[in-house]
Design brief:
single chain, 135 residues, Thiol Ester Dehydrase, Chain A, 22% helix
């Protein structure tokens, strides 16, 4: 399966990301950008987006990007730094790039933005299996 098509297949099978309203903005091998709008049910007790929302968007971009190389890739470690609070109605994007790829292990950086403003930084490590993605 062509790598740039894999994120679209993944999203079609991902109920959680679909429920969040995540859309693929662009996809190519080693780089995927996704976006979503913060909804009322995503807010915490301080009326700001729950940190898990930003994390979920970044994690989705990370997972999609890691799999563009054609092999099933699974997360083995992730972390996020929240920089700015988000409000209901904010549209945020997450762009994941392959920062370093080894044979079985890949390292990705994800920038989450509101417009041009950086709101979170995510780091992820994946393990690539031997299983191929198929149509």
């Amino acid at each position: 399966m062509e790598g740039a098509k894999i994120p679209h297949k993944m999203l079609s099978q991902d109920a959680y990301s679909s429920w969040l309203g995540i859309e693929i903005i662009s996809a190519e091998i080693g780089r995927v950008t996704v976006g979503m709008t913060i909804r009322k049910e995503m807010l915490n007790s301080m009326n700001k987006a729950h940190g898990g929302i930003t994390y979920s968007l970044a994690d989705t971009a990370f997972g999609f990007t890691a799999n563009t190389h054609g092999k099933y890739a699974v997360s083995i470690e992730t972390s996020i730094n929240h920089i700015e609070a988000l409000d209901e109605g904010d549209y945020i994007t997450a762009t994941a790039t392959v920062n370093l790829q080894k044979t079985k292990v890949g390292f990705n950086i994800v920038e989450v933005k509101r417009g041009n403003e950086l709101v979170a930084l995510f780091k992820g490590v994946v393990y690539r299996t031997n299983k191929d993605w198929t149509v």
